[in-house]
Amino acid sequence: MKRTLPIGSLSFFLAGTLLVSGCHAPDLSAMKPSKSKLAVGIVGSKNLSGSKEILDYTTQVLSRSSVVFDIRPADEPQTAQEALKGLASNEKIDLIVTESQYAPIVMELASQYNQKKFGLVGHSAQTAAKSVRVDHVNREHQSFVAGYMMAASAPKEPVGVVLSAPRSADSPEWKGLLEGIHYAGSSAIPTVVTLEEAMGVDGLIRLKSLPTRYLLVMDPVNDSQLARLHESGKGLFLLHDVNRTYPSVIARPAPIFAAGVQEQVQSLLNNSWQDNISVPVMGNSFFEIMRPDTIPANVIELKNQVETGLRNRTLEPGKYINPPKQE
Prior knowledge:
The protein is of the alpha/beta class. It has two domains: 155 residues, 3-Layer(aba) Sandwich (Rossmann fold); 139 residues, 3-Layer(aba) Sandwich (Rossmann fold). Helix content is 35%, strand content 21%. It contains eleven helices and 14 strands. Strands 1-2-4-3-5-6-7-13 form an eight-stranded mixed beta sheet, with helices on both faces. It has a six-stranded mixed beta sheet with strand order 9-8-10-11-12-14. Strand 10, helix 9 and strand 11 form a beta-alpha-beta unit. Helix 5 packs parallel to helix 6 and helix 5 runs antiparallel to helix 11. The N terminus is likely disordered.
């Protein structure tokens, strides 16, 4: 049965510690004095902060260490700002973790409460700062997986790419894409269309004429841009999340919030937490496959093996930067 984190001012007593989800900070004085006291505040959307992964991890930590979690769901910027300010002003909170979209709020609070630890988690590598650590997706690895899936699913076609501006050869996204294509056994050069071209008068004609069934959308797109890409009839692989989706979206980024929270908290428990650094993290998968019916089953299975190799570092994308030799 699916478990979700209760929303409201509900409390759970586990192993002598307290897990709180709601608007009120926990009372740290109730904790056993024989244990080291650590308090972590978590602010995120209800789907992220209340996910099964967050609940399972915080429950596990609560059962073996003296930690208080103050979890505050926030689906709107104003709600998030109020929650973050409330946590920052509580002198007993050691670490505050939130979504990277709230980076401006966190940066301002970090300058005011420079003794507090702040963690940002998201797909984009936000700039770290004093008192702030950033956990983000590894763009090279993410693009590697996307490039592999697209090339392996349509081995006789080039991979189509939509981006806001041309990438340099050492761009993590571009490197990862090429490495993934080569790993799939293809030496085809990607076909590139800029967002400006796609949104132009003849943009739809241009998109439909591409000799590929898939498009990798490398940069963030707004609703109207995504609608235009959907009209092209191509299958879309997204590297950034979107506000809404369409049947043409085959794969979108999988959430990494729970993985980022885990990394932040574990580093705090291990006394290895550092500010002013950006750390790549990986969740259960780089992508949420929305349309598995559009990808060969064996490619999805191999994709899972590829991600396992990236996670345990037995697969090194850099080895595939050059095209495979053609016999």
